[in-house]
Amino acid sequence: MKNIMDKVKFAWSILATSVSINPENRAFSLIDLVEEVDLVNPQIKSDEAVVIPCNLLLVTTWLRDIGDNECEFITKTEFVSPKNEVLQTTPETVKIPKGSNRHRHLIKFNSIKIKEPGVYKFITKINGQDTITGSTELRINIK
Prior knowledge:
Layout: H1 4-7, E1 8-21, E2 28-33, E3 36-39, E4 50-64, E5 71-80, E6 86-96, E7 102-114, E8 118-126, E9 132-142
Parallel strand pairs: 3-9
Antiparallel strand pairs: 1-2, 1-4, 4-7, 5-6, 5-8, 8-9
């Protein structure tokens, strides 16, 4: 059996607060792209992560050669601090339908954990491998 990494390829990912999908033509609109968040007095304590409520969607597009079968695999998305500490891990099952060569997958985050201002990353890995498949940055500013 082929390794899943030989079958699928990470194309891109981006953060948004919402998406709109037209069912007639499958047109996909990203609403309110998010690259940076300003937080006012989030009550950060020395080394403890603080849970911040949010409304974020990580939208990831996967590509593959068109196949006769559905393609299913597991991803792991890690939310990583500016000091490369994994603060959250989210496993997801991705299913690319039969006959499709691209698939957009959405992961909803109702909260994130932070420890300090800086650039955080949503790192995507596939099938429990340590190889980073994709990464999306989010800058956190504290005022």
